[in-house]
């Protein structure tokens, strides 16, 4: 109970500081641009390349949002410093990290340009043939989660996907266009906000659904949205599981009773949901001929790094780089009221909620190695 109220206070603080900080950040917003860097390294033989995976299409939340929220009337933004200090040109693009996201690193590995946010005015023409990014920070599997923050849930993201398909077919013609749509790699990275920015702040939702029922609802959405994406033409679909919710710095601060260790109760919620997603995806393989449905665990990569940071090249696990590292995220992580650590790469977490670019690069290696053999093997019969 206490922690629910504490979370509410934090939310109120976030809302209040928004007013005070906006004046300063308003100026900073001018610095925001969409990412232009087109990285096209030579991809060695036997690896995935743009002839196999011509495009990368991204759905989800702030773990993969490349700047869509910049264009929305929401407080959930990161298009100001210190976000982006390690991005090319030190530009705060709206990515919730210091540099590149996991999806950006994967695009580099595929040898295709990084995907522009769908809302960007630049996201038209040739550039979208290698995919686009539909993710919106603060959204979840449950559309109600996005509504609280006036951002776009998966319902809207899939409508946008339909528009993208139409534009691809117009630009590339039916043969090439359909090749792009059915051979693209699709990723859905979401789910944390359904719990930490919705359920645990929302007594009404808690009264309506006990935790188990809520998990069932979320997993039903995983199934429905993955099936919908398949029915719309996607074939190579990566579904990410939940991270260890209890190891996220802000959650240790809010729910950890003063301990610096991961909150087991929250981690158990994540493990339980992940197990149900795994069996749901497994069952769906029989109903999705021609598809490759790939569940990607991110729980253990993060949990293991948290337990033994040195082993993975990090010095700090519990504290993010921005501010105290315990609570600052979005408007609270800004260069006016929060200091930034000297070397983000030593931290697993950038702010109290999101990993650093250094951690994302490791996660990208792990995901690429997991996905590659599945893509190179035949799809579901
Ligand atoms: C999932 O789809 C089924 C079948 O269309 C529907 O009955 C159910 O209400 C959907 N679940 C959610 C959570 O939207
Ligand atoms: C702090 O963590 C220890 C070890 O996990 C645990 O035994 C203890 O109950 C925790 N204390 C509180 C107040 O939660």
Using brief descriptors, characterize the structure shown.
mainly alpha; Rossmann fold; 4-stranded parallel sheet; 5% strand; globular; binds 2-acetamido-2-deoxy-beta-D-glucopyranose; hydrolase activity, acting on ester bonds; GDSL; GDSL_lipolytic_enzyme
Structure write-up:
This protein has helices at residues 2-29, 102-110, 143-147, 154-183, 192-196, 203-208, 211-231, 249-255, 264-284, 299-307, 357-376; strands at residues 56-60, 185-189, 236-240, 292-296. By secondary structure, it is mostly helical. The chain has a single domain (2-31, 52-376), classed as Rossmann fold, CATH 3.40.50. The chain has a four-stranded parallel β-sheet with strand order 1-2-3-4, sandwiched between helices. Helix 2 crosses helix 11 and helix 7 (211-231) runs parallel beside helix 9. The protein is globular, with a radius of gyration of 20 Å. Mean pLDDT is 89; it is low at 1-40. The chain binds 2-acetamido-2-deoxy-beta-D-glucopyranose (NAG) (2 copies).
